[in-house]
Task: inverse folding
């Protein structure tokens, strides 16, 4: 599964549907439409590459401060000591090789009226269309006691990189017999199933390396995606994992970094290692650009992913609220292709096609034990909805061979998507 | 066409799968035809 062979997802983004001409072309004939993409993750890097691939004449700039991308999917395996961090790292060379101008600067400001992006070094970029894909940021004001400084002691590890390695080192350094406490927020946030995958893989690490230790999961929710699959696996594999839903008093309501405690509505837990996944919001630049609403996320139109608040700006990935579209790497990649196709049409005054796309999220509860949730999405009455009768979760009664096969396919998915975007 | 036949078989439960059965159910006959045509046109 390598390289640039077109995949099913590519097709789906390329989309089915009719195209009509817009009456008014938005740019003068002969001019090079300029598209700036901010954020080089699964959404932004896909958008930049597919914009150029859709129409080589487009002037595409990708603004991303980090020279190396660290992927979140499979970083839970890194935390559990099952995977080397180097397997998570990707460079932008091939994207640049496709003719995208890759600028390793932070985006400091966006003027949505004048269509200007100001970079961290003061340089200014004009755009005809702007694609914002800044991901999500922790809300450091949401959980009492949990600010950025606290995250150095109680990592969130919800952005892959130094935080991932910090949590891994803390688990490695913990003595056997210790207690790990995880804190999970209410929806929406980046890739919710990944928090239960992480709980599973930390339980796996403890069971295999520190068998007298335990994991307590404090959750602001009572129900979650693929719950029966996770709970069955926990019952079978992880007596060391205790999940405390909100209704059982598990709702996390504060941390004390000095005392190394995490409080829930009913109790206070002393942690040897604490992993706090805080409430989240769209990345800062989305807010600065005026595309985030009072929820902290960015409402967008279906098909084009154009902001409902600032015309000319498209918002992709975890930052966007797009109906039923999940905050996953898979959906971010698919949506980015749809957006790229739409933007390439819009800058030439043409009407985008109406697409349909697929999402599949794999979760691992052990290295050879995986399952998935899938969905097919289409725009209905101005919103992305799941196609009824399609998608759903892996069978609850599947064999271990089936689970093992899905674990393999999870790896295959990661290799395919990362080679498509960065390879 | 092999791709269209496979998608129909996944959709109708005549071919076992881990996830393709769930995904294929989201597509109409015309869409399956379009998917197969697109893949068929790739080098």
Result:
């Amino acid at each position: 599964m390598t390289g640039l062979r077109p995949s099913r997802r590519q097709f789906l983004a390329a989309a089915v549907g009719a195209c009509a001409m817009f009456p008014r072309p938005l740019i003068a004939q002969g001019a090079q439409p300029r598209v700036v993409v901010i954020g080089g993750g699964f959404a932004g890097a896909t958008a930049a590459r597919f914009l150029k691939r859709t129409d080589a004449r487009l002037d595409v700039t990708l603004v991303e401060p980090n020279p190396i991308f660290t992927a979140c999917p499979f970083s839970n395996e890194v935390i559990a000591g099952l995977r080397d961090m180097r397997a998570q790292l990707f460079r932008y060379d091939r994207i640049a090789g496709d003719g995208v101008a890759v600028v390793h600067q932070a985006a400091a400001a966006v003027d949505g009226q004048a269509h200007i992006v100001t970079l961290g070094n003061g340089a200014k970029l004009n755009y005809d269309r702007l694609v914002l894909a800044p991901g999500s940021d922790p809300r450091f004001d949401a959980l009492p006691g949990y600010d950025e400084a606290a995250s150095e002691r109680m990592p969130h590890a919800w952005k892959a990189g130094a935080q991932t390695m910090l949590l891994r080192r803390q688990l490695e350094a913990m003595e056997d017999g210790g207690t790990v406490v995880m804190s999970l927020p209410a929806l929406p946030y980046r890739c919710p199933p990944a928090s239960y995958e992480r709980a599973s893989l930390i339980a796996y690490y403890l069971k295999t390396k520190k068998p007298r230790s335990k994991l307590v999961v404090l959750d602001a929710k009572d129900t979650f995606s693929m719950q029966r699959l996770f709970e069955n696996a926990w019952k079978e594999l992880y007596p060391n994992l205790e999940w405390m839903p909100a209704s059982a008093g598990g709702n996390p309501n504060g941390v004390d970094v000095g005392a190394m405690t995490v409080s829930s509505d009913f109790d206070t837990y002393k942690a040897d290692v604490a992993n706090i996944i805080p409430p989240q919001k769209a990345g800062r630049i989305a807010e600065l650009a005026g595309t985030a609403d009072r929820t902290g996320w960015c409402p967008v139109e279906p098909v084009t992913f154009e902001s409902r608040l600032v015309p000319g700006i498209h918002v992709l990935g975890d930052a966007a609220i797009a109906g039923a579209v999940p905050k996953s790497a898979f959906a971010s990649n698919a949506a980015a292709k749809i957006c790229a196709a739409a933007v390439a049409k819009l800058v030439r005054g043409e009407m985008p096609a109406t697409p349909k796309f697929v999402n599949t999220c794999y979760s691992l509860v052990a290295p050879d034990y995986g399952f998935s949730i899938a969905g097919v999405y289409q725009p209905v009455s101005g919103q992305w909805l799941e196609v009824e009768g399609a998608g759903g979760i892996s069978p609850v009664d599947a064999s271990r061979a089936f689970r093992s096969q899905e674990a393999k396919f999870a790896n295959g998915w990661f290799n395919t998507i990362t080679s498509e975007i960065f390879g | 066409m092999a791709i269209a036949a496979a998608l129909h078989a996944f959709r109708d439960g005549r071919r076992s799968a881990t996830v393709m059965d769930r995904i294929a159910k989201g597509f109409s006959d015309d869409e399956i035809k379009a998917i197969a045509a697109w893949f068929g046109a790739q080098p």
